[in-house]
Amino acid sequence: MSYAPVDLAAKFDLFSEQWRPKVVAEMNDYQFKLARLEGEFVWHSHPDTDETFLVIEGALRIEFRDGAVELGAGDMFVVPKGKEHRPVAAAEAKVLLIEPRGVVNTGDADPQAQTAPGDVWI
């Protein structure tokens, strides 16, 4: 077993793709994923699970059909399961996502629109 910490800054340096989460750790059935986000994502929901967003750097707005939440560096928000949402970042935001293994980033949205390959480790 390795007792080395996960260096988030070093992991972010390994990729530049937008909206393509990369797994950096697992705990039980949950994955910790890093993502670079910029622009508007597709409207979607995750019918079977909550989704946690923790902003590491930058700012992120999570829009809902009935409002929105603004997140800055160090802010975290849990989107309840089944709640339709759309992440939006005016400039690049570096985000840690926490969700169960196997969750598709576009949830129940059209799979042709911004769906990323799953379970990609860095």
Enumerate how many helices there are, as a single number. Answer: 1
Point out poorly predicted stretches: none
Radius of gyration: 14 Å
Q: Please identify the structural class as seen in this structure.
A: mainly beta
CATH architecture of the domain at 17-100: Sandwich
Describe the main β-sheet briefly: 7 strands, antiparallel
The CATH first-level class of the domain at 17-100 comes to Mainly Beta
Helix residue percentage: under 10%
* Overall geometric form: globular
Order of helices and strands: HEEEEEEE
For the termini, the CA-CA separation is 18 Å
Query: Superfamily at the CATH H level of the domain at 17-100?
Result: Jelly Rolls
Strand content: over 45%
Within the CATH hierarchy, at the fold level, what is the topology of the domain at 17-100? Jelly Rolls
Q: State the total count of DSSP E strands.
A: 7
Which whole number gives the mean pLDDT?
95
Protein name: Cupin domain-containing protein
Domain Cyclic nucleotide-binding: 11-77
Organism: Mesobaculum littorinae
InterPro entries: cNMP-bd_dom (IPR000595), Cupin_2 (IPR013096), PKS_Associated_Protein (IPR052044), RmlC-like_jellyroll (IPR014710), RmlC_Cupin_sf (IPR011051)
Describe this structure in words.
By secondary structure, this protein is mainly β. The protein has a domain of 84 residues: Sandwich (Jelly Rolls). Helix content is 4%, strand content 46%. The protein is built from one helix and seven strands. Strands 1, 2, 3, 4, 5, 6 and 7 form a seven-stranded antiparallel β-sheet that branches. β1 and β2 form a beta hairpin. It is globular and about 45 Å long. This is Cupin domain-containing protein. It comes from Mesobaculum littorinae.
